Protein 1
Amino acid sequence: MSLGYYDWLVKVIVLGDSGVGKTNILTQFCDSKFSQNYTATIGVDFKIKILNVQDKKIKLQIWDTAGQERFRNITQTYYKGAYGIIFVYSLIDRNSFNNVEGWIKSILESTTDEVCSILVGNKLDSQDRRVQTAEGEKLAQKYNMPFIETSALENKNIQDIFDRLGQNLKIRLENEGQKVSNNIHTQSGQFKLNQEVNQTEQPTSSCNSC
Amino acid sequence: MLSIQKVNIASLYNRNEEYKSCNRETDREDGSKIQKFKDILHQNIIPINELLHLAWSGVPSELRSTVWRLLLKYQSPNRDANFAIIERKRSMYYEMCDIYFAKNQQYDEREKKILKQISEDVKRTIPDSAIFRNPQIQILLERILFIWNIRNPACGYVQGMNDIVSPFLVVFLSDYIDIDTTKLQFTNEKQLDHLDQRLIKQVEADSYWCLCKLLESVLDNYTNSQPGLVRFYNKFKEILSALDKKLYEHLTTSLSMELYSFIFKWSTCMLLRMFQFEVGLRLFDTLLAEEQNYFELCLFIIISILMKFSLKIQKLQYDEIMILLEKLPTREWSESDLSLCLSEAYAYQKIFSKK
């Protein structure tokens, strides 16, 4: 199902401190379930999902990263070629919010590509809020990205993260698509964003022309 | 000299994805196997080499705690000396608890950060197990990991160590409490509440020291930039390409960094997340019986597993391989499936160690 037709293939990474709910957000989005039963992510995990944005299908290859600093070496290798970035903090963990700028800067330092980002404050279901909505909005404005508060537990606004990211991706891809199609970077109508993917995806991409 | 050409790899190489019709007669054998262990363990000076040999093929669960302590050289094979040595180790641990968890203890920022990390991870260690959801067990696990962190400043606590300590904890605890190791729950939760606190502290201390013993030869898997795992990966590529070139080529051209991250993920927690908990205990029997070489065996275990899915993987493309490797069917394996895989891994290891 997930391996079927699509217009674009996009690599997305999810970043943020340990325990803010990155894996839960993704599982809710990709598998429509929430479970308390997730172990800490080691290194990176992989998920795949087709996102419909109006008349287009965007295939998301999503990398769920470990929050612990020790794994930064391995998670950073996935920054390259990422086109969508989801920064997550926990509304009940002040430090995780304070650290978001560190995560944003780590992206700015390691990639020159323009990326579509979104800032997510998770755990909206909890009564013990430590970060106000206005603070999240302000930070998102500073880095010119959309902002959303979510609850993976209650499946609140999770789809919206990807819908909003998807809209921005679509606008960007259509613009970029025009730009690079002159540069023979398109293949079967599909815009390739990532060199690694370029080498590996030929067999699935051949049937994707729209 | 045994070279790879001289060994008929095909005879080893089990291309069946599942181990069917495994030797189920192990149940019948259990009686005599337990007796063999008991014969060894009852000697005044326990012949460690015999024990290593016997333990490699699996340790009966009721003897596991003693055998593991011996294999890790935490417990002395000399029965007379053992008690004093182990008591001293335990006292050392209790002293560390008193120092690092003293009342009014002030932690610096770095320590606070790692305490928070450990507490987050402890909450999600083997999340579907009632044992690990027990607050008393969680506090105990936090202490073990924090003390490990302080005593090993070069690498500190790294996510995945919480998984590695869990087999020790369950095995040592099961000496005093009835545990359903399949469901990983207490047969009777109240038993823990009524257990002598002194015994719980012993379990904690023993788990800590066994974690130390196990990790001492692989510390550079966990230090900055994790050089041990990079070496492990390079060796993995070298050996897989020799044993199954087609698979190797398909994997390395289909995936690049991704392959490294799988190897990394599996080996950081000693392959434990690849199997059901009970099967993980069986895995530890063999790893501990390998002494200092156990991490090398892990490499060959990974290779044996991948080769098992070789034909399938070769037909898959990027996404499908990724999805398969994310959710390997090894989680469905029984202990005897793992035993066969271990034998294969051992055979491959022998080929390469003789080269």
Note: The CA atoms of residues 40 and 168 of chain A lie 30 Å apart.
Protein 2
Amino acid sequence: MADQDLLETDQPLLVAESLSKSYGRIAACREVSFSLYPGEVLAIVGESGSGKSTLLQLLSGQLAASGGQVAYRMRDGVTRDLAALGEAERRLLFRTDWGFVHQDPAQGLRMAVSAGANVGERLMAVGWNHYGRIRETASDWLTRVEIDVARIDDAPRTYSGGMRQRLQIARNLVTGPRLVFMDEPTGGLDVSVQARLLDLLRNLVAELQLAVVIVTHDLAVARLLSHRVMVMKGGRVIETGLTDQVLDDPREPYTQLLVSSILPP
Amino acid sequence: MTAMIDIADANKTFTMHLQGGIELPVVRGVTFHVDPGECVVLSGPSGAGKSSILKMIFGNYRCDSGRIGIRHRGALIDLAAAEPRQVLNVRRATIGYVSQFLRAVPRVATIDVVAEPLIVNGMTRADAQARAGELLHRLNIPERLWQLPPATFSGGEQQRVNIARGFISDLPILLLDEPTASLDAANRAVVVALVAEKKRQGVAMVAIVHDDEIRHLIADRIVDVTGFAAAA
């Protein structure tokens, strides 16, 4: 049943426990704990230097934690400690069940190879070898992210910023991941391009029932995409709750400052 | 009869940290209940806390203390103490909210804005759009506008799109914040008829209505909010 209560049927997908990271005496991330459920979109908001990007790297296993742990429920239903995974297992996770959308598409794409190859590469990495089927799936994904299929053989360096970002999203979603990390995905884009990308992301996330951890400093992005938010300051989570609760009824001084700093449209 | 909404001694105060931490009491000791098929209208002057009470029932504002009892899938849940995921489940399956203003998502067509709550609950897009079309018809939104995003519509048109979106679901609780505020007489009558239909289906409603005539037409009971005024 589509409307079964998530709360009763699901186990968390990702669990962070007392996650900390320090660089010498500087604590970039302190004692962060939360659970993320399938299909849930969690926004991490806060200003530059608040530790939100560090947290994203810890969660995705790209950075080793100084303390605490991250557990992930694998496709076979077994929950594993990320730090205990072997390098090969972690890489497989990244190629199949996870996505990572960078703010700068050049970091997530291979700029000199064709758009079709950018999408197809992830399929080949998980064992697809039928050229026709790979190309067909890649075309299908280009269409879904509103890229003209006629541009399939062009390299992303010939694409506009908005197209590159949409291509990066297609490349991430083609393997049907259950969890996608996003680091300021609309950050470098014009406002009009942002609106289109947000709308596209919102639909894809709902349709594919993706769990997402999205780092953004833009509260409008958090409001549009996320179910829950965590507000970070000085490496700590200072406030958390339903997105509309936190944004409409902020409790902490810093959250009130963030919310009151939004310019009216 | 078992109440759908049962609020006991709910309190809300805003603490304004940017204004030197002043406390802004909103409501105190809010206590009332709503039965199935009943429309309770909140009355009181502007600023008495009517909208805040609706937002507390929807889980949009957090309570400082007290209980917001909601009958959700046959069991009573205290929304004031619920986990975020629980609140989302309650909103999807139990409580609908028609706010004063439509929060339009860019680029989404009007018909899809209205159909979305049904699709989220598992209805096919075609069936959901058919029902959305019927409601838009009733609310006199011309068909040529259905494929356009509502962002550019007039205030009254946006409000009707908002009402269609709020009334389309078969949720057992509906919260209505000034649903007729910017409507002409013909469309106000449509809203009155929609409320009457919801009552017959057993939906419990809490409404804020400033228009005396409309209030008279839809209210089964009036709860005077000035009794919950938080003395500063």
Note: The mean pLDDT of chain A is 91.
Protein 3
Amino acid sequence: MKIHYCDALVIGGGLAGLRSAVAANDKGLNVTVISMVPVKRSHSAAAQGGMQASLGNSKMSQGDNEDLHFTDTVKGSDWGCDQEVARMFVNTAPKAIRELASWGVPWTRIKEGARTAIINAEKTTIVEDPDVNGLIHSRDFGGTKKWRTCYSADATGHSMLFGVANEALKREIEIQDRKEAISLIHKDDQCYGAVVRDLITGELSAYVAKGTMIATGGYGRIYRTTTNAVICEGIGHALALETGKVALGNMEAVQFHPTPIVPSGILLTEGCRGDGGVLRDKDGHRFMPDYEPEKKELASRDVVARRMMEHIKKGKGVGDGKESYVWLDISILGREHIERNLRDVQDIAKTFNGIDPADEGKAGWMPVHPAQHYSMGGIRTDRTGQTRRKGLFSAGEAACWDLHGFNRLGGNSVSEAVVSGMIIGSYFADHCKTNDINISTNYVQEAIRMQDLELDRILTLEGPEDIFEIKARMQDIMDNKVGVFRNGIELKEAVTELEELYLKTNEITIKAKNKIHNDELTEAYRVPKMLKIALCVAKGARDRTESRGAHYREDYEKRDDENWLSRTLAYWRSESDTLPELEYEPLDITTMELPPGFRGYGKRGNILEHPDSAIRQKEVDSIRSKMVREGKDRIEIQEAIMPYELQREYKALNYRVGDRT
Amino acid sequence: MKSNARELTISILKYNPHNSNSRPTMIEYKLKERPGMSLFLALTTIREKLDHDLAFDFVCRAGICGSCGMLVNGKPQLACKTQTKDYKNGKITLMPMPAFEIIKDLSVDTGKWMNGMSKRVGSWIHTSESTDIGKVERRIDPEVAYDTFELDRCIECGICVASCATKIMRPEFVGAVGLNRVVRFSIDPYDERTDADFYEVIGDDDGIFGCMSLMGCEDHCPKEIPLQQKIAYMRRKMVNQRST
């Protein structure tokens, strides 16, 4: 049995994993990255619209800074996020984008002079100053005060992923693809790596390391209708959960993107609306201003998705019943703009629907309907990215250090992936530098043998069930009962049915008995893991009797700060369990920089307030006004209200052009 | 609708080089066509219902990740972007892309090849400068940034390599993907390499002088990158290098 030793093991080769690997390599560590697919094919590549960073270069982003990005992110999260993490993030994002520029990411740049933009469905002229010519541009996205989303046309994730992957190649970091981690190796509460299956030969081997990082992305594929790549099955989450000690945080916080194209569910970027595209109903009426007079199409994703569904439920959708959809109209942006800035959108609409969105009028409208898109929940870590198992870290979409709370803003995903790779990657490297591998070869070999026996056990199962059908039923349950609108009755049914399905995974028969090139066997060990994740989502949603961000309960429509300002923690204590155990971790209002309030979009008067909110708000206001009187700057004031720790190089000031800080 | 659905006949080359008993064999699968069916949906259905052992690669299924290149009725293209309705008689033949190491059936190791290519051409920014990431970024002409992006759009799907006659004659040929990558870095203002540096990498018949301008690469590139124009541009520059 093969054992591969390294200082740092990174599971997952998307933006977060690769950037973490670079961080560990920069500290002189021997890093190995394993990935199920060639790393440049990771799902990070599918991010289209852009990356939020408060550079404040362009006319429409002038005056932007970390404070505004922080406020937008916290409001977006519906106060579910960890505000200190949000501060760490917004302060590092400008550095991340500038680092990526130096690594060759071809960000779209500002051209001085006048240009035409569509704002609120009207042609507007924007004049860029000569002093910003050639600096990084930004576009508008939902839920933001400024145009903050930096981009390279609509292939931003692709360009970023190639940029970071190329840096990893340059550093000669060991990257092994077509390898899947199937369990973690741990002893005495410490993680020492993973048992890994080679997806070409089927061979099992062990990757033993001083520290292990899970950066495997989201769990969208527990749903049927999702924008996620087929590899986003939540297996990384399950590995952490199965240790029994590591919690998954806020798993019920699942984002539904407003504008995947119908019926394939392929994403059309929020940049469509950010650049001025509008949503229309069956009568061609632009309906979002009726619901959201201020932000219109550019409220946060959870709000826009719900408003679309609400409008469809009123019979205003195109087509009938469950197939009903609305139109996304970007034809008003003009062909030139689309063919330069939204070309992948045009390509997708042409290829999959035979529609050229640059065609004028109705001919160019694209059918859209909300679908699962992003996993706010994930492996619960502290602010350094470490879980309750020493040596086990997590970063990116896989993790819940808790930047997004109950709703992520568009443009904050790839931004988080890279930023967390920088910050957590560096903490992870520190851990690997100061810890040793303290397990015997025998112990490692036993870990491999256990997994081999588990595959044997699956192959000998004899029952009437089919693993592909179990998976399909799980996905239908999630779509139908744990979707955009949720209620107690359906969620209760969902938990019961998912638990039954979980038990049925032991009542299957695998037709072919070979251990490699046997897709049925692969599904048979993955699907029970996916069901564990689905159960964490459904049970978390069932028990959370409030509406917050993307988690919306028809039977509990209000955000309930008094009872539910808390993070859900799901544990799978023992392999014999069939349901996760839930605990709650309260969020402390008395230390928040931004105490809970109204988001500025969504329904008004929909909050059950916590008494501490007003008290803390007063406190914050008085600190601020006193310090303003004393002539303190915004950074000193922030530090006084909510101090936070961050590596010195990332905590440093971000300079802006003309020092418009 | 359902009763009218036609039957598709999809023939697939099955072969497992890791199994000494395996011989390349064409296997025929029949399935009902569904509205808007892509080869992603068709192949997934075959694997779920008809043949659990069939190997192929998909990741994004949206034409973005470059995983699913294969020969569809002899033409290399992305399977996820291929619609079954475009095949009038409902007969489709699928083979793995040539020029790459075969893993099994339709799955080929483009990842390994692309990593080799990337290392060979130095597919990263070569610079002696260190960047202070707290400071305002360097200014780049917006048109130059756009031109760089245009070439950066390559998704390393390998279709240009599988379409290339030179590659068949010269196994070490760096391919349009490699040449495009060199042009991409040569116009990127962050990269300090000179034409003389690039000549060292591609100034031979396995590089820029191997291309016979048959244009298979550009004809099939799913991202519609102007490969021939860029190769011609680089060839002119490299000819100048040779004469100096």
Note: Chain B has nine helices and seven strands.
